Amino acid sequence: MVEAQSWTTRRGSNPRLDPAADHLLDIPATPPGDVRNGPNATGSLVSLTAVIIASWYLSNIGVLLLNKYLLSIYGYRYPIFLTMLHMISCSVYSYIAIVWFEIVPLQHISSRRQFFKILALSAIFCFSVVCGNTSLRYLPVSFNQAIGATTPFFTAIFAFLITCKKESGQVYLTLVPVVFGIVLASNSEPSFHLFGFFVCLGSTAGRALKSVVQGLLLTSEGEKLHSMNLLLYMAPMAAMILLPFTLYIEGNVLGITLEKAKENWNMVFLLFGNATVAYLVNLTNFLVTKHTSALTLQVLGNAKAAVAATVSVLIFRNQVTWMGIMGFAVTMFGVGLYSEAKKRSKGTAH
């Protein structure tokens, strides 16, 4: 018969409960919540968010200024090839970020139908970006951004034409100052160029069309892709779409680029830096949304146009008029009203 252990025996058999063995283990006390979540942690989080927002502004404005410098001032007049370099850059960096660094889980294309949907989005994406880059050859960045601010107008039109989605009367009313502001700015723009204006309008319309079509095509749970995964698949498709166009329209652009690079190595750094910043635009979009919210990204986007226009005027010294400034301000005011009206209409719907 086995003698049952007493409480003292059992307690003594565990060194963690034996007072004599206290020197063997040094278990630190759990810090209270106010220490764990103290001002240092909050300050670090605020600092990180500020760095991400600053990076977002730098990349978004930087790619605009670099595109303008290359296409208009430096004399590199090949917007399709430049856009193709952007797409190749996005393909490579997206693969590294997702497959190597795993910033988001890798998603796979699940069907041929989904593949063709992404291909359609890539074609619209190509059209929008090429038109936007082409317009920078003819228009100052400030006017380019003013036209780009009319995206809500085109979004509302395409949403109605494609999905038959009707907005509230208040939302439609806010589009009046958006359009009126551009009319004012266009009539008083000293560097107005008709072809550049229509190409920039095409870019803005293409951006709006992509957002509407993307919401329409990739809605089922099995086909939804994270924005970074969507870029991973769209970018190489876009590069392949652009390749025949750049060869046919821009001729021996690769040979010309290599010749320019031999004459001046700065060309290599400009193109490489430009393509890298083009990817950072997409990466910082994701990081801002992750660390703040989609609404914050929208607010930053509204403010970006004004900041980019101001910075471009300071750098490139393009002439502006008070009427043009007023028109830009009216458009931005309308964009702000539109965002607020959309938010209220969504709140009413829920």
TrEMBL record:
Keyword hit for Transmembrane: yes
Keywords for the protein's UniProt record, in alphabetical order: Membrane, Transmembrane, Transmembrane helix
InterPro entries: EmrE-like, Sugar_P_trans_dom, TPT_transporter
Positions of the UniProt region annotated as Disordered: 1-22
Main location class: membrane
One Pfam family, short name: TPT
SUPFAM superfamilies from the UniProt entry: Multidrug resistance efflux transporter EmrE
Membrane topology, as annotated: Multi-pass membrane protein
One GO cellular component term noted in the UniProt record for this chain: membrane
Taxonomy, superkingdom: Eukaryota
Domain Sugar phosphate transporter residues, every copy: 50-339
Subcellular location: Membrane
Polar residues: compositionally biased ranges: 1-12
Membrane-traversing stretches: 45-66, 78-103, 115-136, 142-162, 169-186, 230-249, 269-288, 322-339
Protein name: Sugar phosphate transporter domain-containing protein
Organism per entry: Escallonia herrerae
